[in-house]
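Section handout, structural biology tutorial.
Before the tutorial, make sure you can parse a SMILES string by hand: atoms, branches in parentheses, ring closures as digits. In the record below the ligand is S-adenosylmethionine, and the chain has 253 residues. In the tutorial you will relate the predicted structure tokens back to the input. Do not try to memorize them.
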Amino acid sequence: MPPTPPEAAAVFGERLDLAEHYVALLGTTGITRGLIGPREGPRLWDRHILNCAALSPLIPRRDFTQAVIDVGSGAGLPGVVLAIARPDLHVHLVEPLARRTAWLSEAVHELGLDNVTIHTTRAESLWGTLTAPWVTARAVTGIVQLAEWTLPLLSVPGQVLALKGSRGPTELAEAERALHRLGVARCEAVRLGSPRAEDATTVLRLLVDRPVDAKRFRAQGSSSAGSARRRRDRAKSGGDGKVSDRGDRPTSR
Ligand SMILES: C[S@@+](CC[C@H](N)C(=O)[O-])C[C@H]1O[C@@H](n2cnc3c(N)ncnc32)[C@H](O)[C@@H]1O
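Predicted structure of the complex:
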């Protein structure tokens, strides 16, 4: 297993042993069962764990439990990392592929995490049944399609936090008008500095201050304008937006 970097202690505090255990699971059965690419083993900490943990300071601590919906969790990135770093949060992992959620269930059980719920389904199928003030996602799809899938999951006020790489600000600039049309009140690209990051990390933050009606997206989803926008969005982001059962690419950060 890759050695634990010194920054990890500051991020995980007394739950560092849990983070190390999760890295060990990712680096063994996570790889053999195809949840994470075989070349990711040596860079699990830098490219995955610390990259995902960078989201944590964007969710302020409250004196009550806040829910987070992590969409397209794959091997639990960033949802499991947040659940380990932040026992004050309850994290819902949303992942449609049963093969992946089977591994996630075993991992969550082995880590003894009691602040995680796993949903084997697509984000859109939870519209009207699950809401939270925070939605997180990494490497799932382009920002406009992600907004379509996730804005109906937000309680108000609420935020989508999408982890991106150095191209994040450009992606946001290109998507801003479409995002406002979908009901986003404000959006910004937050640059996160990490001395160990291979690539600059950006979080695209979408703020919503009134409920977003999912019916609008159902209607848009059937329109040719909606389909054309999604095709453009996918092409720009490199995200496929499809649910395929191949091994995860490292990320499209
Ligand atoms: C490239 S993987 C990224 C996994 C993880 N977030 C990471 O950074 O390693 C994208 C994941 O999104 C899931 N996904 C695709 N469409 C989805 C949808 N509509 N709702 C929820 N998850 C979806 C896929 O099954 C896949 O596991």
